Amino acid sequence: MKKLRKPFPVLQQYTYLNTAASGLLSEKVMEFRQDHDLDFLISGSILKDKQGELLTGVRETVGEFFKCAPNRVALTPNFSYGFNTFLEGLNKSKKVLLLSGDYPSITWAVSSREFEICYAEIDENLEQHIAASMEKEHPDVFAFSIVQYISGIKLSIDFLKNLKQKFPETLFVADGTQYCGTEIFDFDDSGLDVLICSTYKWLNAGYGNAFILFNESVQGKIAPKAVGFNSLQGKYKAHEGNFIGKFEPGHLDTLSFGSLKTALGLLKDVGMELVQERIATLSKRAKQEFLAMELLGDMVVKRDQHSSIFNIKGDTQLYNFLKSENIICSQRGDGIRIAFHYFNTEEELDYLLKTLREYEKT
């Protein structure tokens, strides 16, 4: 366990249960960033000449990690940039299905345009609501988070895959920001058409980098308008009008994207089987303990499957008490959001529970 925690110095100071807000910087990523900027300092444009090779390596690493051919991987600064570029490529007559209360970067981006919008409610029966909305509305696009950022409610990939088979003409566009890095994920086998992910959370890759994965069939269904000289640069963007190039019109930051490649390398070294197992084990026990303490809302209590994000009942006073005990978490919605990653421990969960019980006595 010490080996898993050693790359993240923050864990020596705090009980860090806040990956859902921001992932940690690892020593491995920091070392890459220091070396990169030193190279830039002493070599200037010579480093830029290597940009294509580095970014090609990033694209290939992302594709290998998430099972998507590298010529269907686009690199983008963040989720919102990629999602807005996608939406600009859609005809404004399209109907879009959203989840009510989903992440604002999804709902605001869609509602700020002229699309017809329909909604499915987020509660313990989320899947039934989605299926019913699909049957009734027959949307052209279904845009959603795989894991909800406030409640931690999670849609299973099997559910999404089966739903896609029933509605093959609907474009399934997923936000993987609160999902990717928590379990093994095979994009090409998921049924999703597009997945966009900012990587500063569960992938621990820092800020300024994200990626988009595309199904082969998407290219003929949207027409992105963004274009720039960088749209034609690189091994996988060699011809004019290249699809992924429309999502990469300007120069990409080799510091940020090199950080992503390095962070994925660390996860590969740890092993996603171990990551998935540790997160699942911690989350299962945490849910049982939170249930016993009556800290969870009904819509989470009544669901069998859940992510590693929990929103427990609590106010600002409790939040400040947890902070005073060096427990790092976030206030979200009406409660306090707790999130467990693979480097968290049973002992940290015990400490959280002990602290919560002490607060109850005050």
Automatic annotation (TrEMBL):
Keywords assigned: Aminotransferase, Pyridoxal phosphate, Transferase
SUPFAM superfamilies per UniProt: PLP-dependent transferases
Pfam families, per database record: Aminotran_5 (PF00266)
One function term, GO molecular function aspect: transaminase activity
InterPro entries per UniProt: Aminotrans_V_dom, PyrdxlP-dep_Trfase, PyrdxlP-dep_Trfase_major, PyrdxlP-dep_Trfase_small
PANTHER family assigned: BLR3095 PROTEIN (PTHR43586:SF15), CYSTEINE DESULFURASE (PTHR43586)
Origin superkingdom: Bacteria
Annotated ranges, domain Aminotransferase class V: 45-352
Protein name, UniProt field: Aminotransferase class V
rRNA processing recorded as keyword: no
